[in-house]
Design goal:
There is one protein chain. This protein has about 400 residues and is an alpha/beta fold. Strands 1, 2, 3, 4, 5, 6, 7 and 8 form an 8-stranded mixed beta sheet that branches. Strands 9-10 form a two-stranded antiparallel sheet. It folds into 2 domains: about 5-215 and about 340-385, 2-enoyl-CoA Hydratase, Chain A, domain 1, CATH 3.90.226; about 225-285 and about 290-320, no CATH class. Helix 9 packs across helix 11, helix 10 crosses helix 11 (about 255-280) and helix 11 runs parallel beside helix 13 (about 305-330). The protein contains 16 helices and 10 strands. The protein has helices at about 35-40, 60-70, 85-90, 120-140, 150-155, 165-170, 195-200, 225-235, 235-240, 245-255, 255-280, 290-295, 305-330, 350-360, 365-370, 375-385; strands spanning about 5-10, 15-20, 45-55, 75-85, 95-100, 105-110, 160, 175, 180, 210. About 50% of the residues lie in helices and about 15% in strands.
Length: about 400
């Protein structure tokens, strides 16, 4: 699995890039917040420049990252390079200062989760999401002079803020000139209120983020598959169906049978092609509409073959995105080994021990943090640091 962030340190200053979805995604790419928090704890610096270009991701990983940044002794300066959406916008609130280029965006909305189980399990998740939302509101209130209900309504409405709008609300300390940055986020398709301007400005498949780009996402218009269409577009299909049939012999013996045979063969060919195109068109994946349209009418790709090709194309996109990040970002900092007790920061041992004792004894506590001890530990560290920007 490849990380979705980079940390580099030089002298008394560190630079952190969060340039992807937060946490592990559906394809198994990315890592949990545990490694991030461990590396952050190992930074002995006085200032951190945090650059964010992320559609969000795991709310629990994001909560841990936010708390860890708040608890850190360094001054945190946040720059939203492109987009800070969902839990990524909460992470941005950890900044002592926040900067946004004029073509960047910040989005806040209600947290969501998937739960499978009984009604009680779902009620518990609803209660947990309510607590998470309350914590997110407290984080936003460190920058927004609004009451709980006002921020809650903004979250429920999935509110997108430009740099100017964020500055008017007091979130942003500084606006800068528009920037260009390599990015691609399939996750934007999951949001319901993505601004039209953003859809036009963001170009997928490794293109540049600019104020005026032309989207390559294309609408696939359903077509009425007819026999005439198959004959005109794919005459080789009809020819293949009739291959091996001695039409001259049949014409000589039974002329009327030729008409029926040709007609039946054409019907079978048309039906088979219709089914093939239908199977390919069902292999939907956001960002691959153009490829799917090409495969629908190449005359040979089956539904199963299309699924494999689309997945390969998706992996290539993600590989290119990772290469872009590695090219743009400095090399990651080498952290000290944690294989022996000497590498552990003794200053953290008391709070670690206290948290572990409470964790082992309280099933309710484990349930509240969904079994993620690291998220709970980061939360307690934030409280220990006496910060007011603690989630929960």
């Amino acid at each position: 699995m490849k990380p979705w962030y980079k940390i580099t340190a030089k002298a008394n200053k560190a630079k952190i890039l969060i340039y992807e979805q937060i946490g592990e995604d559906f394809f198994g790419e990315g890592v949990s917040a545990k490694k991030f928090v461990n590396e952050l704890d190992g930074l002995n610096v006085s200032s951190i420049d945090l650059h964010i270009n992320s559609p969000g991701g795991s709310v629990f990983d994001g909560t841990s990252i936010y708390n860890a940044l708040v608890a850190h002794d360094a001054v945190v300066n946040v720059t939203v390079d492109g987009i800070a959406a969902s839990i990524a916008s909460v992470i941005a609130m950890a900044g002592d200062t926040i900067e946004m280029p004029e073509n960047s965006l910040l989005m806040i909305h209600d947290p969501s989760a998937l739960v499978i189980g009984t009604a009680k399990d779902m009620e518990k998740m609803a209660e947990t999401l309510g607590k998470i939302k309350g914590g997110m509101i407290k984080a936003y209130q460190t920058k927004l002079a609004m009451d709980d209900d006002e921020i809650s309504e903004m979250m429920s409405n999935e509110t997108w803020l430009t740099a100017n709008e964020a500055a008017e609300l007091g979130i942003v300390d500084k606006k800068t000139e528009p920037v260009e940055i390599s990015a691609q986020f399939q996750a934007l398709a999951n949001f319901k209120n993505v601004p039209e301007g953003l859809k036009k400005a963001w170009v997928f498949k490794g293109q540049k983020f600019t104020p005026s780009g032309e989207t390559i996402l294309q609408e696939v218009i359903p077509m009425n598959i007819t026999l005439e269409l198959i004959k005109n577009e794919h005459p080789e299909i009809v020819k293949e169906i009739l291959a091996g049939v001695d039409l001259d012999f049949i014409r000589a013996k039974l002329p009327e049978a030729v008409v029926e045979l040709e007609s039946e063969g054409e019907k079978r060919g048309a039906e088979n092609e219709r089914k093939r195109i239908q199977a390919v068109s069902e292999q939907t994946m956001s960002g691959h509409e153009k490829l799917i349209a090409e495969l629908m009418f190449d005359g040979e790709t089956t539904g199963e073959m299309a699924a494999v090709k689309i997945l390969k194309a998706e992996k290539q996109i993600r590989a290119q995105m990772t290469a872009d990040l590695q090219k743009d970002a400095p090399a990651p900092i080498e952290q000290p080994s944690t294989d022996n007790a000497e590498s552990v920061n003794d200053d953290h041992l008391p709070v670690d021990q206290r948290c572990k004792a409470k964790w082992d004894k309280s099933k309710e506590l484990q349930s509240e943090f969904l079994g993620d001890f690291d998220a709970y530990l980061a939360y307690e560290k934030a409280i220990e640091a006496g910060k007011v920007k603690v989630l929960g």
